[in-house]
Amino acid sequence: MSTIEPPLESEILSRVILPHDGSLSSEAAEALLKLQFPEEDTNRMNELAGKNRLGELSDSERDEMTRYSRVGNLLSLLRSKARQSLKND
């Protein structure tokens, strides 16, 4: 009997956000494109990435890196939808 793999979080978000559906107003799309990580968070992500390359992440740092990655994936989906919406205007 084969088992069905549960969907990835990113797959679920894609189905909810529909990044290729350009249905946002131009104002909403432009606002979403302005969202970004603050410099402090970008610095922390770079620090975690460096430690990860060296194999020096603690379990809590690995969890932190995963949380940043999830937020980054969400931002990517939102930006994709925003760009598609502006393209359709």
Note down, in words, how this protein is organized.
- There is one protein chain.
- The chain has 89 residues and is mainly α.
- The protein has one domain (25-88).
- It has 4 helices and no strands.
- Helix 1 packs parallel to helix 4, helix 2 (26-33) runs antiparallel to helix 4 and helix 3 (39-53) crosses helix 4 (59-88).
- The longest helix is centred in the C-terminal third of the chain and has 30 residues, at 59-88.
- The relative contact order is 0.23.
- The model has no long low-confidence stretch (mean pLDDT 94).
**What can be said about the biggest beta sheet?**
none
Helical amount among residues, as a percent range?
55-70%
Shape: flat
Please give the number of β-strands: 0
- Look at the helices and sheets and give the structural class: mainly alpha
Radius of gyration: 17 Å
Distance between the termini: 49 Å
Please work out how many helical segments DSSP would assign.
4
| Overall pLDDT confidence | 94
Write the layout of secondary structure elements.
Layout: H1 9-17, H2 26-33, H3 39-53, H4 59-88
Helix pairs in contact: 1-4, 2-4, 3-4
